[in-house]
């Protein structure tokens, strides 16, 4: 099992619940779309999944470990198994495109010789082979998004989380990215894509989790809401 | 490259999964070779280098002062320790000369006196020059005669009989073993050393406080960078290493610059002291040999250690409060 949410609620600064009593499982090799209106809690749910937040109540299991109260020292190893494409990219402006993509490998202590080719390959694949030394402030939104995608994939994650990954790229690149996610999913990675793009969800025909008012209100896999896989 | 091919390349195979089981650590050398992950502006930069430079200058001056006091007091007291001075006063030059001759006879016949010498009037007058000026000691002044004597340790331990014999031979003879003077010099030197050591310690505390403040400010300024590093799997140690490395580089730059300036100033002071003829009968010579300069290297080493370790501990403490 990749992730298991048990009655998970989340509130910021003791305010109202952003997420309320969520129950769902994410199995290995699963591909799920996460959708819902703005402010429904999609990004918050992703933050719980990529360990940027801990739930206010309930229990979150990731890769078989209870991360609700896990010590800080246990988190880096879990985070290295997750690749995240942030909606706002979150690149480091003072590093080059190459260095940004290589970041997960560098923090894991891998020698550059072991990942140099991988990084170049990914940058080539996302069409930025000629921008390896460019820094994010000089890049367009679409280029930044592609660098963020390459960074998310470079460490070969078991779980890929993407927040509106096609929002800033042209349709052709968007289709290419989704195809890559599907291929990676076929090879075993679990994928969660948060998006407003209903046409994308319909085109791919993958299961969908719908968040509304912090609750899983509707889904194309009803059993998921009850904590079982459909 | 086709999507399927790139997907295969970047899917988590068994080898990748097995490799994740243990946290890998980069070698220390590797870390220093690598490009910094924290932006230049965030870690204090030039202001921190300048502050450490000033700290280094002050600490080096304090340490140099301590070394000079130590060397001077040792030289002074070792000179005084070896001998005694016998002063023979009298109503006139004839009485002084007679007393000096009698005292000299006593001294030379005493067992344990290694060497004894009656200072000439010229030598005695020269001793008074710092107070009276050159050529101002006229014939009318009854300058006491002085005998310098080197004694064996046994005799130094028991000066009573010699003193009594001298009094008997010459009523105006006074034996001075310099003990009171030596004790005063020691006390003054100890106070000077304690003051210099306290200043040195305070400077280290101040350097630590500045490093802690700069590390916290740097962390706050780079909170987004730190957050991203965490999200891609960085440990607190990794981030602390980055900050520590940055602070170490700044501390090395600043402390060496401060030390060089302090060495220059100390060299000028010593040179100036000598050129002005400061050393003489009253003050010992001030010396700053290569050994003393080598000891001053303690300053950059201590400052770098204090700065880097404080920055590291500050960062680790701050990060421990995060999720």
Assembly form of the protein: heterodimer
Bin the strand percentage of chain B.
5-15%
The total count of strands of chain B amounts to: 4
Q: Helix-strand pattern of chain B, N to C?
A: HHHHEHEHEHHEHHHHH
Fraction of residues in helix of chain A: 25-40%
> What is the percentage of strand-forming residues of chain A?
15-25%
Q: Please state the overall shape of chain A, judged from the principal axes of the Cα atoms.
A: globular
Tell me about the largest β-sheet of chain B.
4 strands, antiparallel
- Secondary-structure content class of chain A: alpha/beta
N- and C-termini, Cα separation of chain A: 14 Å
Number of helices of chain A: 8
Radius of gyration from the alpha-carbon trace of chain A, in angstroms: 17 Å
Strand line-up of the largest beta sheet of chain B: 2-3-1-4
What is the H/E order of chain A? EEEHEEHEHHHEHEHEEH
Q: Structural class of the helix and strand makeup of chain B? A: alpha+beta
């Amino acid at each position: 099992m990749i992730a298991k949410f048990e009655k998970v609620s989340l509130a910021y600064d003791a305010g109202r619940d952003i997420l309320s009593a969520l129950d769902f499982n994410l199995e290995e090799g699963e591909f799920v779309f996460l959708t819902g209106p703005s402010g429904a809690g999609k990004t918050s749910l992703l933050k719980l999944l990529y360990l940027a937040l801990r739930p206010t109540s309930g229990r979150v299991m990731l890769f078989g470990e209870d991360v609700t109260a896990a010590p800080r020292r246990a988190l880096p190893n879990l985070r290295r198994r997750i690749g995240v494409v942030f909606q706002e990219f979150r690149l480091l402006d003072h590093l080059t495109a190459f260095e940004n993509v290589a970041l997960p490998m560098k923090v894991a202590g891998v020698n550059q010789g072991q990942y140099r080719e991988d990084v170049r390959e990914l940058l080539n694949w996302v069409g930025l082979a000629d921008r390896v030394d460019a820094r994010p402030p000089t890049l367009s939104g679409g280029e930044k998004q592609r660098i963020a995608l390459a960074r998310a994939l470079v460490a070969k994650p078991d779980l890929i989380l993407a927040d509106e990954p096609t929002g800033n790229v042209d349709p052709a690149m968007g289709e290419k990215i989704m195809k890559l996610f599907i291929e990676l999913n076929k090879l075993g990675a679990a994928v969660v894509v948060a998006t407003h793009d209903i046409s994308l969800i319909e085109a791919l025909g993958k299961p969908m989790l719908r968040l509304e008012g912090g609750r899983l209100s509707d889904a194309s896999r009803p059993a998921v809401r009850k904590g079982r896989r459909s | 490259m086709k999507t399927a091919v790139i997907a295969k390349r970047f899917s988590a195979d068994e080898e990748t999964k097995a490799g994740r089981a243990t946290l890998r650590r980069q070698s220390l050398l590797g870390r220093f070779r690598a490009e910094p992950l924290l932006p230049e502006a965030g870690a204090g930069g030039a202001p921190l280098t300048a502050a450490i430079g000033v700290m280094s200058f002050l600490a080096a001056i304090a340490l140099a002062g301590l070394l000079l006091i130590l060397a001077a007091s040792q030289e002074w007291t070792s000179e005084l320790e070896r001998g005694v001075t016998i002063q023979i006063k009298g109503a006139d030059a004839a009485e002084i000369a007679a007393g000096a001759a009698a005292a000299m006879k006593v001294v030379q016949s005493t067992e344990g006196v290694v060497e004894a010498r009656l200072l000439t009037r010229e030598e005695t007058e020269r001793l008074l020059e710092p107070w009276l000026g050159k050529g101002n000691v006229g014939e009318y002044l009854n300058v006491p005669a002085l005998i310098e004597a080197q004694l064996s340790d046994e005799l130094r331990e028991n000066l009573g009989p010699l003193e009594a014999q001298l009094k008997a031979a010459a009523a105006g003879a006074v034996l001075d073993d310099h003990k009171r003077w030596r004790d005063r010099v020691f006390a003054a030197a100890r106070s000077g050393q304690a003051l210099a050591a306290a200043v040195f310690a305070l400077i280290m505390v101040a350097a630590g406080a500045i490093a802690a403040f700069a590390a916290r400010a740097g962390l706050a300024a780079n909170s987004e960078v730190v957050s991203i590093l965490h999200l891609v799997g960085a440990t607190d140690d990794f981030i602390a290493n980055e900050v520590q490395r940055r602070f170490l580089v700044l501390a090395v730059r600043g402390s060496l610059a401060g030390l060089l300036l302090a060495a220059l100033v100390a060299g000028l002071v010593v040179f100036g002291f000598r050129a002005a003829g400061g050393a003489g009968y009253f003050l010992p010579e001030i010396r700053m040999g290569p050994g003393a300069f080598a000891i001053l290297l303690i300053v950059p080493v201590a400052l770098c250690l204090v700065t880097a370790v404080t920055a590291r501990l500050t960062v680790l403490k701050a990060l421990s409060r995060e999720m």
